[in-house]
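Data card: per-record layout.
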Amino acid sequence: MPLSQGARIMGCLLAIWLKRLRRGPMDSVPRATLKAQRGLVGNADQGGRRQVTLLEQEVWQALMAHVGATLSPAARRANLLLSGIRLADTRQRVLHIGACRLRILGATKPCERMQEAWPGLQAAMYPGWQGGAFAEVLDDGEIAVGDAVWWQEDD
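The structure for this 155-residue chain is written out next.
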């Protein structure tokens, strides 16, 4: 259930994963450092447009029910698992996680690794941003599991 701060809907950062090697395992960590225009310190993917990947817990649970699987959200290979925040159609919006900001740049398209994880999962993830989102990092700072997550209000 999203938290409310005045009229602002707030979600929560539920998990952080670092991928230390390309195509390597996703390591769960309780906290991480974000570096502006780079991404997560210690993650294999640095710089470029896809600095951080995000997934909604609620969407993952619905996908698992749809395909009849019980995979951990770590199988998605995203960096951050959020709850209470909708990512669909949020291109160019700014998301706050704790003291840091991320700009959503687009939907993360599911790769063949999702089909390897569970038959039919890759196809199920394509519509409506169900594969999550990718973002650029706007601020240096620390994030931790349990941090509040909210959308920056338009000025």
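Known properties of this structure: The two ends are 26 Å apart (CA to CA). The longest strand covers residues 8-19.

See the next section for split statistics.
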